[in-house]
Automatic annotation (TrEMBL):
Signal peptide annotation: none
Pfam family, one: PP-binding
UniProt organism field: Saccharomonospora glauca K62
InterPro entries in the cross-refs: ACP-like_sf, PP-bd_ACP
Domain Carrier: 1-77
Identification of the protein by name: Acyl carrier protein
Length: 81
C-alpha cells in the first residue's frame, strides 16, 4: 500500500517551495492554505487518488493539516472497501 501521508506531505511541501510544515500543523492558521490552494488540493486529490470529494467532505477538519488530509483519503478508501 502506498504511503498516502508521504504523498500528501510531498505535494504540500512542493507547493510551498519545499517549506517544511509539521504533519499536524494547522495549515490555515499558519497561513499556508488559502481558498485557492484548498481548491487545488481538492482537484489534486481527486486526480491523484481517483476519489470524488463531495461538498459534505469540504470541512476544515478534513483539510486542517497534512495529517488530516491524508486521513481523509485513507478514510475514503476504508469506506469503499
Amino acid at each position: 500500500m502506498e504511503d498516502r501521508l508521504q504523498i500528501v506531505r510531498d505535494y504540500i511541501h512542493g507547493h510551498l517551495g519545499n517549506v517544511t510544515v509539521a504533519d499536524d500543523e494547522d495549515l490555515f492558521k499558519g497561513g499556508y492554505l488559502n481558498s485557492l490552494f484548498a481548491v487545488q488540493i481538492v482537484v489534486w486529490l481527486e486526480k491523484r487518488f481517483g476519489i470524488a470529494v463531495r461538498g459534505s467532505d469540504l470541512t476544515l477538519d478534513n483539510f486542517r493539516s497534512i495529517k488530516d488530509i491524508a486521513a481523509f483519503v485513507d478514510d475514503y478508501f476504508t469506506l469503499i472497501g
